[in-house]
Design goal:
- This protein folds into 4 domains: about 5-130, 3-Layer(aba) Sandwich (Rossmann fold); about 150-315, 3-Layer(aba) Sandwich (Rossmann fold); about 315-400, Helicase, Ruva Protein, domain 3 (Orthogonal Bundle), CATH 1.10.8; about 405-459, Arc Repressor Mutant, subunit A (Orthogonal Bundle).
- It contains 19 helices and 16 strands.
- The strands form 5 sheets. Strands 2-1-3-4-5 form a 5-stranded parallel β-sheet, with helices on both faces. Strands 7-10-13-6-14 form a 5-stranded parallel β-sheet.
- About 50% of the residues lie in helices and about 15% in strands.
- It has about 450 residues and is an alpha/beta fold.
- The longest helix has about 35 residues, at about 110-145.
- Strand 11 (about 265) and strand 12 form a beta hairpin.
- It has helices at about 15-25, 35-45, 60-70, 85-95, 110-145, 150-160, 180-190, 205-215, 230-235, 250-265, 290-295, 300-305, 325-340, 345-355, 360-375, 385-405, 410-420, 425-435, 440-445; strands at about 5-10, 30-35, 50-55, 80, 100-105, 170, 195-200, 215, 230, 240-245, 265, 275, 280-285, 310, 345, 380.
- Helix 5 runs antiparallel to helix 7 (about 180-190), helix 10 crosses helix 12 (about 300-305) and helix 13 (about 325-340) crosses helix 15 (about 360-375).
Length: about 450
Protein backbone atom coordinates (compact mmCIF):
# COMPACT_ATOMS: atom_id res chain seq x y z
CA UNK A 1 0.00 0.00 0.00
CA UNK A 2 1.34 3.42 -1.00
CA UNK A 3 2.73 5.61 1.75
CA UNK A 4 4.27 2.85 3.83
CA UNK A 5 7.67 3.72 5.33
CA UNK A 6 10.87 1.92 4.41
CA UNK A 7 14.29 2.47 5.99
CA UNK A 8 17.42 1.59 3.97
CA UNK A 9 20.83 1.27 5.64
CA UNK A 10 23.89 0.84 3.41
CA UNK A 11 27.32 2.51 3.43
CA UNK A 12 27.31 2.28 -0.38
CA UNK A 13 25.51 5.49 -1.38
CA UNK A 14 24.85 4.32 -4.95
CA UNK A 15 22.97 1.26 -3.61
CA UNK A 16 20.89 3.49 -1.32
CA UNK A 17 20.06 5.73 -4.26
CA UNK A 18 19.20 2.78 -6.52
CA UNK A 19 16.84 1.16 -3.97
CA UNK A 20 15.34 4.51 -3.00
CA UNK A 21 14.41 5.45 -6.60
CA UNK A 22 12.93 2.01 -7.28
CA UNK A 23 10.83 1.89 -4.11
CA UNK A 24 9.66 5.51 -4.31
CA UNK A 25 8.25 4.70 -7.75
CA UNK A 26 6.13 2.06 -5.97
CA UNK A 27 4.66 4.84 -3.80
CA UNK A 28 6.61 4.14 -0.60
CA UNK A 29 8.18 6.73 1.67
CA UNK A 30 11.90 5.92 1.77
CA UNK A 31 14.59 7.09 4.20
CA UNK A 32 18.28 6.20 3.71
CA UNK A 33 21.15 6.17 6.22
CA UNK A 34 24.75 5.10 5.74
CA UNK A 35 25.74 3.27 8.95
CA UNK A 36 24.30 0.85 11.46
CA UNK A 37 24.11 3.20 14.45
CA UNK A 38 21.99 5.71 12.50
CA UNK A 39 19.78 2.88 11.25
CA UNK A 40 19.01 1.72 14.80
CA UNK A 41 18.44 5.29 16.04
CA UNK A 42 16.09 6.01 13.12
CA UNK A 43 14.17 2.74 13.56
CA UNK A 44 13.70 3.42 17.26
CA UNK A 45 12.65 7.06 16.87
CA UNK A 46 10.21 6.68 13.94
CA UNK A 47 7.64 4.10 12.92
CA UNK A 48 8.86 2.14 9.90
CA UNK A 49 7.13 -0.76 8.16
CA UNK A 50 10.26 -2.43 6.73
CA UNK A 51 14.03 -2.09 7.21
CA UNK A 52 16.52 -3.07 4.48
CA UNK A 53 20.11 -3.26 5.69
CA UNK A 54 23.46 -4.23 4.24
CA UNK A 55 25.49 -6.72 6.29
CA UNK A 56 28.98 -5.22 5.93
CA UNK A 57 29.08 -1.70 7.35
CA UNK A 58 31.68 0.00 9.50
CA UNK A 59 30.99 0.14 13.23
CA UNK A 60 27.73 -1.74 13.62
CA UNK A 61 27.14 -4.40 10.97
CA UNK A 62 23.80 -5.58 9.58
CA UNK A 63 23.47 -8.55 11.96
CA UNK A 64 23.91 -6.20 14.94
CA UNK A 65 21.36 -3.80 13.41
CA UNK A 66 18.96 -6.72 13.06
CA UNK A 67 19.44 -7.74 16.72
CA UNK A 68 18.99 -4.20 18.04
CA UNK A 69 15.79 -3.65 16.03
CA UNK A 70 14.31 -7.01 17.02
CA UNK A 71 15.00 -6.20 20.66
CA UNK A 72 12.85 -3.05 20.53
CA UNK A 73 10.27 -4.10 17.89
CA UNK A 74 10.12 -7.87 17.22
CA UNK A 75 7.32 -7.40 14.65
CA UNK A 76 9.31 -5.05 12.35
CA UNK A 77 10.53 -7.03 9.28
CA UNK A 78 14.23 -6.65 8.47
CA UNK A 79 15.53 -7.61 5.01
CA UNK A 80 19.26 -8.37 4.84
CA UNK A 81 21.24 -7.54 1.68
CA UNK A 82 24.85 -8.42 1.00
CA UNK A 83 27.31 -8.46 -1.84
CA UNK A 84 29.20 -11.32 -0.17
CA UNK A 85 26.96 -14.37 -0.28
CA UNK A 86 27.63 -16.87 2.49
CA UNK A 87 25.50 -19.75 3.69
CA UNK A 88 26.75 -19.16 7.24
CA UNK A 89 25.72 -15.48 7.34
CA UNK A 90 22.39 -16.27 5.67
CA UNK A 91 21.57 -18.88 8.32
CA UNK A 92 22.72 -16.56 11.10
CA UNK A 93 20.53 -13.73 9.78
CA UNK A 94 17.44 -15.92 9.44
CA UNK A 95 18.00 -17.48 12.86
CA UNK A 96 18.11 -14.00 14.39
CA UNK A 97 14.79 -13.08 12.85
CA UNK A 98 15.57 -11.61 9.41
CA UNK A 99 12.56 -11.66 7.10
CA UNK A 100 14.58 -12.40 3.95
CA UNK A 101 18.17 -12.58 2.68
CA UNK A 102 18.96 -10.96 -0.69
CA UNK A 103 22.22 -10.99 -2.66
CA UNK A 104 23.14 -7.63 -4.21
CA UNK A 105 23.50 -7.48 -8.00
CA UNK A 106 21.96 -10.98 -8.26
CA UNK A 107 18.52 -9.92 -7.00
CA UNK A 108 16.25 -8.66 -9.80
CA UNK A 109 14.11 -5.55 -9.35
CA UNK A 110 10.89 -7.58 -9.38
CA UNK A 111 12.27 -9.95 -6.73
CA UNK A 112 13.20 -7.01 -4.45
CA UNK A 113 9.76 -5.42 -4.91
CA UNK A 114 8.02 -8.75 -4.23
CA UNK A 115 10.06 -9.34 -1.04
CA UNK A 116 9.24 -5.81 0.18
CA UNK A 117 5.51 -6.32 -0.56
CA UNK A 118 5.51 -9.62 1.33
CA UNK A 119 7.32 -8.04 4.28
CA UNK A 120 4.79 -5.19 4.35
CA UNK A 121 1.88 -7.64 4.22
CA UNK A 122 3.33 -9.66 7.09
CA UNK A 123 3.93 -6.50 9.16
CA UNK A 124 0.36 -5.34 8.55
CA UNK A 125 -1.10 -8.71 9.61
CA UNK A 126 1.07 -8.84 12.74
CA UNK A 127 0.10 -5.31 13.72
CA UNK A 128 -3.58 -6.05 13.17
CA UNK A 129 -3.35 -9.23 15.24
CA UNK A 130 -1.61 -7.44 18.11
CA UNK A 131 -4.13 -4.59 17.97
CA UNK A 132 -7.15 -6.91 17.88
CA UNK A 133 -5.83 -9.08 20.71
CA UNK A 134 -5.12 -6.00 22.80
CA UNK A 135 -8.57 -4.54 22.10
CA UNK A 136 -10.29 -7.84 22.93
CA UNK A 137 -8.33 -8.24 26.13
CA UNK A 138 -8.93 -4.60 27.01
CA UNK A 139 -12.64 -5.15 26.47
CA UNK A 140 -12.86 -8.45 28.30
CA UNK A 141 -10.57 -8.07 31.30
CA UNK A 142 -12.52 -5.44 33.25
CA UNK A 143 -15.54 -7.81 33.22
CA UNK A 144 -13.60 -10.01 35.61
CA UNK A 145 -13.38 -7.11 38.08
CA UNK A 146 -17.05 -6.38 38.63
CA UNK A 147 -18.14 -2.99 39.93
CA UNK A 148 -19.30 0.52 39.16
CA UNK A 149 -18.73 2.14 42.54
CA UNK A 150 -16.51 5.18 42.86
CA UNK A 151 -13.93 3.13 44.76
CA UNK A 152 -13.55 0.42 42.10
CA UNK A 153 -13.70 2.93 39.24
CA UNK A 154 -10.67 4.57 40.82
CA UNK A 155 -8.86 1.21 40.60
CA UNK A 156 -9.88 0.83 36.93
CA UNK A 157 -8.45 4.29 36.25
CA UNK A 158 -5.10 3.37 37.79
CA UNK A 159 -4.99 0.10 35.82
CA UNK A 160 -5.44 2.06 32.57
CA UNK A 161 -2.72 4.56 33.49
CA UNK A 162 -0.05 2.03 34.49
CA UNK A 163 -0.72 -0.83 32.06
CA UNK A 164 1.54 0.39 29.25
CA UNK A 165 4.42 1.30 31.55
CA UNK A 166 7.08 -1.06 32.88
CA UNK A 167 6.91 0.37 36.40
CA UNK A 168 6.80 -2.02 39.35
CA UNK A 169 3.33 -2.17 40.94
CA UNK A 170 2.39 -2.99 44.54
CA UNK A 171 -1.23 -4.14 44.85
CA UNK A 172 -2.54 -3.89 48.41
CA UNK A 173 -5.80 -5.18 49.83
CA UNK A 174 -7.41 -7.65 52.17
CA UNK A 175 -7.55 -11.33 51.28
CA UNK A 176 -10.22 -12.07 48.69
CA UNK A 177 -10.47 -8.57 47.21
CA UNK A 178 -9.14 -9.59 43.77
CA UNK A 179 -5.48 -8.61 43.77
CA UNK A 180 -4.53 -11.18 41.13
CA UNK A 181 -7.42 -10.06 38.90
CA UNK A 182 -6.00 -6.53 38.99
CA UNK A 183 -2.52 -7.85 38.13
CA UNK A 184 -3.93 -9.82 35.19
CA UNK A 185 -5.88 -6.78 33.99
CA UNK A 186 -2.65 -4.75 33.97
CA UNK A 187 -0.82 -7.50 32.06
CA UNK A 188 -3.49 -8.04 29.39
CA UNK A 189 -3.90 -4.33 28.75
CA UNK A 190 -0.14 -3.84 28.32
CA UNK A 191 2.29 -4.29 25.47
CA UNK A 192 3.39 -7.52 27.18
CA UNK A 193 0.01 -9.21 26.70
CA UNK A 194 1.35 -11.78 24.21
CA UNK A 195 4.10 -12.85 26.62
CA UNK A 196 3.56 -15.04 29.73
CA UNK A 197 1.72 -14.01 32.88
CA UNK A 198 3.37 -16.02 35.67
CA UNK A 199 2.25 -15.99 39.29
CA UNK A 200 3.35 -17.51 42.59
CA UNK A 201 2.09 -17.28 46.16
CA UNK A 202 5.16 -16.54 48.27
CA UNK A 203 3.44 -17.65 51.47
CA UNK A 204 2.54 -21.09 50.13
CA UNK A 205 6.08 -22.50 49.84
CA UNK A 206 8.96 -23.05 52.30
CA UNK A 207 11.99 -20.80 51.80
CA UNK A 208 14.30 -23.28 50.02
CA UNK A 209 11.59 -24.38 47.59
CA UNK A 210 10.47 -20.79 46.96
CA UNK A 211 14.06 -19.77 46.13
CA UNK A 212 14.35 -22.56 43.58
CA UNK A 213 10.96 -21.70 42.04
CA UNK A 214 11.80 -17.99 41.76
CA UNK A 215 15.40 -18.14 40.57
CA UNK A 216 15.89 -21.70 39.30
CA UNK A 217 18.72 -24.07 40.19
CA UNK A 218 21.61 -25.91 38.58
CA UNK A 219 22.04 -29.65 38.54
CA UNK A 220 23.50 -31.01 41.78
CA UNK A 221 23.00 -27.81 43.77
CA UNK A 222 20.98 -29.74 46.38
CA UNK A 223 19.57 -33.21 46.98
CA UNK A 224 17.00 -33.93 44.29
CA UNK A 225 18.34 -31.35 41.80
CA UNK A 226 18.88 -33.95 39.07
CA UNK A 227 18.87 -31.39 36.24
CA UNK A 228 19.00 -27.65 35.63
CA UNK A 229 15.72 -25.84 36.16
CA UNK A 230 14.68 -22.39 34.96
CA UNK A 231 13.22 -20.10 37.63
CA UNK A 232 9.88 -18.37 37.16
CA UNK A 233 11.60 -15.00 36.70
CA UNK A 234 13.25 -16.44 33.57
CA UNK A 235 10.03 -18.14 32.45
CA UNK A 236 8.23 -14.78 32.70
CA UNK A 237 10.85 -12.89 30.65
CA UNK A 238 9.15 -10.42 28.35
CA UNK A 239 5.90 -10.79 30.28
CA UNK A 240 4.65 -10.15 33.79
CA UNK A 241 5.60 -11.87 37.05
CA UNK A 242 3.03 -11.61 39.84
CA UNK A 243 4.41 -12.15 43.36
CA UNK A 244 1.43 -12.70 45.64
CA UNK A 245 1.85 -12.22 49.42
CA UNK A 246 5.34 -10.80 49.02
CA UNK A 247 5.24 -9.80 52.70
CA UNK A 248 5.59 -13.49 53.61
CA UNK A 249 9.10 -13.78 52.13
CA UNK A 250 12.13 -14.42 54.33
CA UNK A 251 15.01 -11.92 54.70
CA UNK A 252 17.22 -14.06 52.43
CA UNK A 253 14.61 -14.09 49.65
CA UNK A 254 14.06 -10.34 50.10
CA UNK A 255 17.78 -9.71 49.41
CA UNK A 256 17.55 -11.68 46.17
CA UNK A 257 14.35 -9.90 45.12
CA UNK A 258 16.08 -6.58 45.69
CA UNK A 259 18.89 -7.67 43.34
CA UNK A 260 16.34 -8.54 40.65
CA UNK A 261 14.79 -5.08 40.87
CA UNK A 262 18.14 -3.26 40.97
CA UNK A 263 20.18 -5.26 38.46
CA UNK A 264 17.45 -6.99 36.43
CA UNK A 265 19.30 -10.29 36.82
CA UNK A 266 19.07 -13.51 38.81
CA UNK A 267 21.56 -16.14 39.94
CA UNK A 268 20.13 -19.69 40.12
CA UNK A 269 20.60 -21.73 43.29
CA UNK A 270 24.07 -23.28 43.06
CA UNK A 271 24.96 -21.12 40.05
CA UNK A 272 27.65 -18.48 39.64
CA UNK A 273 26.72 -16.71 36.42
CA UNK A 274 23.97 -14.05 36.49
CA UNK A 275 21.08 -14.35 34.02
CA UNK A 276 19.39 -11.21 32.68
CA UNK A 277 15.60 -11.11 33.05
CA UNK A 278 13.07 -8.70 31.58
CA UNK A 279 9.82 -9.53 33.37
CA UNK A 280 7.64 -6.70 34.66
CA UNK A 281 7.08 -7.22 38.40
CA UNK A 282 3.72 -6.84 40.13
CA UNK A 283 3.71 -7.66 43.84
CA UNK A 284 0.73 -8.01 46.16
CA UNK A 285 0.20 -8.11 49.89
CA UNK A 286 -2.62 -8.15 52.44
CA UNK A 287 -0.18 -7.03 55.15
CA UNK A 288 0.84 -3.49 56.09
CA UNK A 289 4.39 -3.45 54.71
CA UNK A 290 5.11 -0.04 56.23
CA UNK A 291 4.48 -1.51 59.68
CA UNK A 292 6.62 -4.51 58.74
CA UNK A 293 9.44 -2.14 57.75
CA UNK A 294 9.19 -0.35 61.13
CA UNK A 295 9.14 -3.74 62.86
CA UNK A 296 12.25 -4.70 60.83
CA UNK A 297 10.59 -7.81 59.41
CA UNK A 298 10.61 -6.44 55.86
CA UNK A 299 13.49 -4.64 54.15
CA UNK A 300 12.92 -0.91 53.73
CA UNK A 301 14.95 -0.75 50.47
CA UNK A 302 12.88 -3.58 48.95
CA UNK A 303 9.62 -1.95 50.07
CA UNK A 304 10.50 1.31 48.32
CA UNK A 305 11.54 -0.59 45.19
CA UNK A 306 8.22 -2.45 45.13
CA UNK A 307 6.06 0.51 46.06
CA UNK A 308 6.74 2.55 42.89
CA UNK A 309 3.04 2.67 41.99
CA UNK A 310 0.70 1.45 44.75
CA UNK A 311 -2.83 0.28 43.94
CA UNK A 312 -5.11 -0.29 46.93
CA UNK A 313 -8.20 -2.44 46.37
CA UNK A 314 -11.03 -1.50 48.72
CA UNK A 315 -12.67 -4.24 50.80
CA UNK A 316 -16.19 -5.24 49.78
CA UNK A 317 -17.75 -3.53 52.83
CA UNK A 318 -16.42 -0.20 51.48
CA UNK A 319 -18.16 -0.66 48.12
CA UNK A 320 -21.54 -2.09 49.02
CA UNK A 321 -23.12 -0.66 45.85
CA UNK A 322 -21.20 -3.30 43.89
CA UNK A 323 -22.67 -6.24 45.84
CA UNK A 324 -25.85 -6.62 43.67
CA UNK A 325 -23.69 -6.58 40.50
CA UNK A 326 -21.39 -9.23 41.95
CA UNK A 327 -24.27 -11.38 43.20
CA UNK A 328 -25.94 -11.41 39.77
CA UNK A 329 -22.59 -12.10 38.09
CA UNK A 330 -21.90 -15.09 40.35
CA UNK A 331 -25.47 -16.33 39.91
CA UNK A 332 -24.97 -16.37 36.12
CA UNK A 333 -21.55 -18.03 36.42
CA UNK A 334 -22.81 -20.76 38.75
CA UNK A 335 -25.97 -21.29 36.71
CA UNK A 336 -23.85 -21.85 33.58
CA UNK A 337 -21.71 -24.42 35.41
CA UNK A 338 -24.59 -26.28 37.07
CA UNK A 339 -27.37 -25.80 34.52
CA UNK A 340 -29.61 -24.43 37.30
CA UNK A 341 -30.96 -20.93 36.62
CA UNK A 342 -31.53 -19.09 39.89
CA UNK A 343 -32.72 -15.67 40.95
CA UNK A 344 -32.46 -14.02 44.37
CA UNK A 345 -35.13 -12.38 46.51
CA UNK A 346 -34.99 -8.69 47.43
CA UNK A 347 -34.83 -9.60 51.14
CA UNK A 348 -31.84 -11.91 50.58
CA UNK A 349 -30.10 -9.26 48.49
CA UNK A 350 -30.57 -6.66 51.23
CA UNK A 351 -29.10 -9.05 53.76
CA UNK A 352 -26.06 -9.61 51.53
CA UNK A 353 -25.63 -5.85 51.05
CA UNK A 354 -25.57 -5.27 54.82
CA UNK A 355 -23.14 -8.09 55.66
CA UNK A 356 -19.54 -7.01 56.41
CA UNK A 357 -17.80 -9.66 54.23
CA UNK A 358 -14.55 -10.40 56.09
CA UNK A 359 -13.61 -12.73 53.20
CA UNK A 360 -14.55 -10.08 50.61
CA UNK A 361 -15.46 -10.99 47.02
CA UNK A 362 -14.13 -14.54 47.32
CA UNK A 363 -16.42 -15.20 50.28
CA UNK A 364 -19.42 -13.79 48.39
CA UNK A 365 -18.67 -16.00 45.38
CA UNK A 366 -18.47 -19.12 47.58
CA UNK A 367 -21.74 -18.30 49.34
CA UNK A 368 -23.61 -17.77 46.05
CA UNK A 369 -22.24 -21.02 44.63
CA UNK A 370 -23.29 -22.89 47.77
CA UNK A 371 -26.79 -21.40 47.70
CA UNK A 372 -27.32 -22.28 44.02
CA UNK A 373 -26.13 -25.87 44.46
CA UNK A 374 -27.98 -26.64 47.72
CA UNK A 375 -31.24 -24.75 47.03
CA UNK A 376 -33.85 -26.97 45.35
CA UNK A 377 -36.14 -24.28 43.91
CA UNK A 378 -35.52 -21.48 41.46
CA UNK A 379 -35.17 -18.73 44.04
CA UNK A 380 -32.41 -18.00 46.58
CA UNK A 381 -34.08 -16.65 49.72
CA UNK A 382 -33.14 -15.67 53.28
CA UNK A 383 -33.26 -19.25 54.50
CA UNK A 384 -30.67 -20.28 51.87
CA UNK A 385 -28.02 -17.94 53.27
CA UNK A 386 -25.54 -19.03 55.98
CA UNK A 387 -26.45 -18.55 59.65
CA UNK A 388 -23.59 -16.10 60.20
CA UNK A 389 -25.09 -13.63 57.71
CA UNK A 390 -28.56 -13.79 59.26
CA UNK A 391 -27.11 -13.59 62.80
CA UNK A 392 -25.05 -10.50 61.95
CA UNK A 393 -28.19 -8.84 60.61
CA UNK A 394 -30.03 -9.58 63.89
CA UNK A 395 -27.07 -8.29 65.89
CA UNK A 396 -27.09 -5.04 63.93
CA UNK A 397 -30.82 -4.58 64.59
CA UNK A 398 -30.20 -5.18 68.31
CA UNK A 399 -27.48 -2.50 68.28
CA UNK A 400 -29.93 -0.07 66.68
CA UNK A 401 -32.47 -0.82 69.44
CA UNK A 402 -29.81 -0.31 72.12
CA UNK A 403 -28.92 3.06 70.61
CA UNK A 404 -32.43 4.27 71.34
CA UNK A 405 -31.28 4.55 74.97
CA UNK A 406 -28.24 6.72 74.09
CA UNK A 407 -27.90 10.52 74.39
CA UNK A 408 -27.72 12.70 71.28
CA UNK A 409 -23.99 13.29 71.82
CA UNK A 410 -23.35 9.55 72.16
CA UNK A 411 -25.31 8.87 68.98
CA UNK A 412 -23.39 11.56 67.09
CA UNK A 413 -20.06 10.13 68.25
CA UNK A 414 -21.04 6.60 67.20
CA UNK A 415 -22.30 7.85 63.86
CA UNK A 416 -19.04 9.77 63.26
CA UNK A 417 -17.00 6.63 64.01
CA UNK A 418 -19.26 4.57 61.72
CA UNK A 419 -18.91 6.97 58.78
CA UNK A 420 -15.13 7.35 59.27
CA UNK A 421 -14.67 3.59 59.28
CA UNK A 422 -17.03 3.16 56.33
CA UNK A 423 -14.95 5.69 54.36
CA UNK A 424 -11.69 4.05 55.51
CA UNK A 425 -10.89 7.25 57.45
CA UNK A 426 -10.73 9.30 54.26
CA UNK A 427 -11.82 12.52 55.92
CA UNK A 428 -12.72 14.41 52.77
CA UNK A 429 -15.07 11.63 51.75
CA UNK A 430 -16.44 11.28 55.29
CA UNK A 431 -17.25 15.02 55.48
CA UNK A 432 -19.06 14.73 52.13
CA UNK A 433 -21.19 11.82 53.41
CA UNK A 434 -21.96 13.71 56.63
CA UNK A 435 -22.87 16.88 54.73
CA UNK A 436 -20.42 19.04 56.67
CA UNK A 437 -17.17 20.74 55.69
CA UNK A 438 -13.77 19.28 56.55
CA UNK A 439 -12.99 21.83 59.29
CA UNK A 440 -16.24 20.97 61.11
CA UNK A 441 -15.36 17.28 60.91
CA UNK A 442 -11.89 17.96 62.38
CA UNK A 443 -13.46 19.88 65.30
CA UNK A 444 -15.85 17.03 66.02
CA UNK A 445 -13.01 14.47 65.91
CA UNK A 446 -11.08 16.56 68.45
CA UNK A 447 -14.19 17.19 70.57
CA UNK A 448 -14.95 13.50 70.94
CA UNK A 449 -11.29 12.50 71.25
CA UNK A 450 -11.53 9.95 68.47
CA UNK A 451 -8.41 7.84 68.12
CA UNK A 452 -6.73 8.71 64.86
CA UNK A 453 -4.57 5.57 64.98
CA UNK A 454 -7.45 3.12 65.16
CA UNK A 455 -7.13 2.89 61.36
CA UNK A 456 -4.67 4.41 58.92
CA UNK A 457 -5.68 8.04 58.51
CA UNK A 458 -5.92 9.19 54.90
CA UNK A 459 -6.12 12.95 54.50
Amino acid sequence: MAGEKILIADDEKSMCQYLSIMLKKEGYFVKTVHNGQKAVQEAQSSNYDVVITDIRMEGMDGIEVLGAIKETDPALPVIIMTAYASQKTAIEALNKGAFYYLIKRAAKNEEIKMVVRNALDMHKVKNENVFLKKQLKKKDTPKEIIGKSEEIERVFGLVDKVADTDSTILVCGESGTGKELVARAIHYRSGRSNAPFVSINCGALPENLLESELFGHVKGSFTGAIKDKDGLFKVASGGTFFLDEVGETSPAIQVKLLRVLQEREIIPVGGTSPIKVSARLIAATNADLEKAVHAETFRADLYYRLNVIPITIPPLRHRRDDIPLLVNHFLRMTSEKTGRNKTISNEAMELLKNYDWPGNVRELENIIERAVILQDGDHVDLCDLPDKIRLQSKEKRKIVMDKAQMTLEELEKEYLISVLEESNWQKKRASSILGINASTLYRKIQRYGLDRDRDKVLV
